[in-house]
Amino acid sequence: MKFLVRILFISILFLTSISCKKTADSPLTSAEKNAIELQRVISENGIKRVYPVKAADIFPNFFPSNTGTSWTFSNGFIKINYGLSESYNLNYLLKYVIAPIYLENNVPATALILYF
After folding, report:
1. Considering the entire predicted model, what is its pTM?
2. Which of 2, 7, 61, 68 has its CA 20 to 30 A from that of 17?
3. Distance (Å, rounded) from C-alpha 18 to C-alpha 7?
4. What's the distance, Cα to Cα, between the start and end of the chain in Å?
């Protein structure tokens, strides 16, 4: 009888240890790390506009006033209502700056500029 109790006790311990193993978290990709950083910057600085810019292009003089006002993050991408609500892969983000800009109606604004 003692032998059966021991076996039962050891079996329960073994099964409990298997079920309690912690699974390793998968490491974040660089795009996901960029998304976390951008969300922090947006939150801490009260950013109301986000605009993507191609790093090789000339910086625009004016930005459309009806764009850049909403964005979402998903799996290392940012989707911005800029043009056709395009998604941008944050793996290709070269840098970002908070900058004063002018909207097309010549109104000044502060925006987060993303350079791709």
Report:
1. 0.74
2. 2
3. 16
4. 72
The 10 Å CB-count burial string (b at 16+, else e) for 56-93 is: eeeeeeebeeebbeebebeebbbebbbeeeeebebeeb
- Name the pairing type of β-strands 95-102 and 50-53: unpaired
User: What distance in Å separates the CA atoms of residue 44 and residue 52, rounded to the nearest whole number?
Assistant: 20
**How many Å apart are CA 96 and CA 72, to the nearest integer?**
17
Say which amino acid occupies 76. Answer: G
Structure tokens at 37: 């950083």
- Residue by residue, pLDDT tens for the chain (116 residues) are 655 445 545 555 555 555 555 556 789 999 999 999 999 999 999 999 999 999 999 988 889 999 999 999 999 999 999 877 689 999 999 999 999 999 999 999 999 999 99
